[in-house]
Amino acid sequence: MSKQHRNTAKILVEKIMRTLLLLEGFTKQNLSFIFKGGTALMLHFNSTKRLSIDIDIILPNEIKDLESILDAIVKEQGFLRKELQHRSANSKIKKEHYKFFFTPLHKTNKDEEYV
Predict the structure, then answer these.
(1) In the prediction, which pLDDT does 1 show?
(2) d(CA 108, CA 14)
(3) How far apart are the C-alpha atoms of 72 and 28, rounded to whole Å?
(4) pLDDT digits over 102-112, tens only?
């Protein structure tokens, strides 16, 4: 860990690594997507001033077998499971939010963590 982030909680660093594994999983599945948000900016500007532990993507087309693709990502990238998060929205744009669970290498007070 760099001097700049020596005091950063180890679980936060692990969550960032898991987030990048999740992103890698999307690319391995050959999904066409637009990557946006904090993690995209962090990678684009090669800056860790703002650490981000989620992935914001836009799928330009509806994918009929999205659930099976996400299940494959869970399996191939070392996650335990995924969980759809139901959120209310005042938008006509279809949005889905998922949590991807994993067993943390750096133990916390939880058996599972998520990104």
Answers:
(1) 47
(2) 11
(3) 10
(4) 999 988 889 99
Query: What is the SS3 assignment for 12?
Result: helix
CA–CA distance, 78 with 54 (Å, rounded to integer)? 17
Question: Among all chains, which residue has been given the structure tokens 């703002």?
Answer: 50
DSSP 25-59: HHHHTT---EEESHHHHHHHTT--SS-----EEE-
Q: What is the pLDDT of residues 24-58, one digit of tens each?
A: 999 999 988 888 888 878 888 887 776 778 888 88
Q: What secondary structure does DSSP assign to 86-111, as a single string? A: P---S-SS---EEEEEE--SS--SSS
Of 36 and 4, the one with more pLDDT: 36
Give how far Cα 105 sits from Cα of 12, 15, 77, 88, Å.
11, 10, 15, 33
CA 18 to each of CA 65, 87, 94: distance values in angstroms, whole numbers, following the listed order? 23, 23, 25
Average pLDDT over residues 83-98: 83
Task: State pTM to two decimals.
Answer: 0.82
